[in-house]
Amino acid sequence: MRIAVTGGAGFIGSHYVRTLLDGGYQGYENAHVTVLDKLTYAGLRVNLPAAHPRLDFVQGDICDRALLRRVLPGHDAVVHFAAESHVDRSVRDADVFTRTNVGGTQALADICLEAGVPRMVHVSTDEVYGSIPEGSWTEESPLLPNSPYAASKAAADLMVRAYWRTHGLNVSVTRCSNNYGPYQHPEKLVPLFVTHLLEGLPLPLYGDGRNVREWMHVDDHCRAVQLVLTEGEAGEIYNVGGGEELTNLDVTARLLDLCGADPSVVRRVADRKGHDLRYSLDGTKLRDTLGFTPRIGFAQGLAETVEWYRAHPRWWRTAKYGRSGGSGPAHRQGRPAMAPRAAVGSAR
Ligand code: NAD
Description:
The chain is about 40% helix and about 15% strand.
């Protein structure tokens, strides 16, 4: 069994790969994993074992069709995590989002067909549905993405569905809510706030902090992706829901509590343009058809995540500032990996 994982050096992809290599998915204990990752600012080689008998690491771009033609033949499946993933960055410059998230996904679909790769899972997001004041989205809800990031993910979802319908590509799509857990880049709310608190910095909170997100531990999300890979049907979309809904204010209060900090460190900053108010997924389909329920409660998962950041200062300092062993361009040029204006408390 050979699995190609795009974006396997990022937050969620690396959790999936580490779990695969640790034998965490039944029936895949001997699977060989090829990670294809460009190592953008968001991808760190240190998120994966330096060497492992069942791991090949290829640094490269999913838009590079010649590379895909060399790498993908012989694989039994592609699990596609690679993406530009930060909404704030897409608000400032959407070009690379269209290129990677839409063009890269299309290139992967094309080369899967050409190379005869028999299975693909496309990892998408709840953000494709837009914002919902009450109730929850099912897989039949309309796609009304509001940020350039969400629009690029929605376009990719439609593209792979069209490849299923037109060419018979065996692809399933997952749409998960906000993830949290170890190895998340400190541009995202939880690690940004935890690392700021560990550094004694104020917490910049967007707007009134009343935006609601549904939180899912990365381990639960990856388990759902694996379930869809093995048991999901071609052409089907699966919401990965059942997480806990909290306002950004609630999350901030819990982090202050876990870090023993005073609420006075919170600074309200101008809201994100077009900031979605609420996300909420109906996870009935994945639960009833494939038996998925999340296992890690937010209180426990968040406490463990804070402890992980506390215990791994070298990792998050590298991701945040490009210091001590960072391999991306920011590190090479000696400037912060995270531009100061990106450092605002957005959930995604
Ligand atoms: P991330 O930003 O941490 O990681 C993305 C990875 O993709 C990085 O390793 C990066 O180097 C790589 N990459 C980017 N462009 C590439 C390219 N052109 N070619 C090859 N590799 C490239 O993102 P994440 O949070 O781990 O998200 C992974 C996937 O899950 C994304 O598709 C995202 O849309 C989706 N998702 C994320 C969340 C969340 O809360 N983080 C929730 C639902 C869905």
